[in-house]
Write a structure and sequence with these properties.
Layout: E1 12-13, E2 20-28, E3 37-49, E4 59-65, E5 67-72, E6 75-80, E7 84-87, E8 93-97, E9 103-110
Antiparallel strand pairs: 1-2, 2-3, 3-9, 4-7, 4-9, 5-6, 5-8
Length: about 120
């Protein structure tokens, strides 16, 4: 069993090319002994975004706070607090904060997505 207390793992800036105003906290990671999946907390500042990218694993996302848009090839989907999102493997995507407050969401991916 692994127990991580609130505030124990604060988000750190993401410096990947194309990211703007993004920070991430690894809440449960491979290094914690997770056998199959990891959970991260993302925060995106007002006007910020993750890079447009794709990879061969899925994202399962639960939105905690804020308003955003998920952009994929040819489609934009608005979302907000309480919404759940599945980004499928190999689907090009990015998350954009469309509100005036920080956008915060949990993201669960398989171990191979723990970078």
């Amino acid at each position: 069993m692994k127990h991580v207390k609130r505030g124990e793992r604060e988000p750190r800036p993401v410096s990947v090319e194309g990211a703007s105003g993004v920070s991430k906290a690894d809440l449960i990671a491979k290094s914690d002994g997770a056998p199959g999946a990891v959970m991260r907390l993302f925060e995106i500042a007002a006007g910020g975004n993750t890079p447009f990218h794709a990879h061969d694993w899925e994202h399962v996302v639960y939105v905690l706070e804020g308003q955003g848009t998920l952009e994929t090839r040819g489609k934009s989907t608005d979302f907000g607090a309480g919404d759940t999102i599945l980004v499928e493997p190999d689907e090009e995507h990015n998350f954009v904060n469309r509100g005036g407050e920080p956008l915060r969401f949990l993201c669960v991916v398989p171990l191979r997505g723990d970078a």
